[in-house]
Amino acid sequence: MRENFFILLFFSQLLSSFAIARLPKNVPLLPPREASGAPVSLKNRTYIDKSQKSDPISLGFELGTLLRNDSTSGDLLGMQLFWGGRISAEFALMGSSFHIKPSIGYFRKQQSEGAVSVTQHVVEGGANFLYQVTQFSGVEWSLGAVGRLDYLVSNIRLYDQSEFGSSFRFRAGPSSGLKFKVSKEFKLTTDFELSFAVSRPSRVFGGLTSGLVFDL
Amino acid sequence: MLSSAVKFLFLAFGLMCAFVSTGCNQPVMQGPATVSIIYPASGHCKYTIGPVNLTTLENLQKMSGKVGRVLHSPNNLDDNSNALVSGEGLKSVDTEFFKSGNTFIPANLDTLFAASLYYSVEVGYLLTKQIEPSVDLASVIPNLRDTRIVHRAIRSSGQTGSRAEISDNAEYLSIRSSPYVLNYFFSYPTEEVKDIPLGLNLGIMNHEFSHLIFQHLFYEPGIKRNMDVGSSKPTTNTLAALDEGLADYFGFLATQDPGYFLCSFPLENRDLARPKYFNSTVISGIEGRGEYFDSHEGGAVFAAIQYELGQNIGNHQVVGQSLIRLMSNILTCSSTSSGNTLNFNFGDIAKCHLGILSSDSRAQQAARQLYQKYLGSYGVGL
Question: What is the predicted ipTM?
Answer without folding.
Answer: 0.87
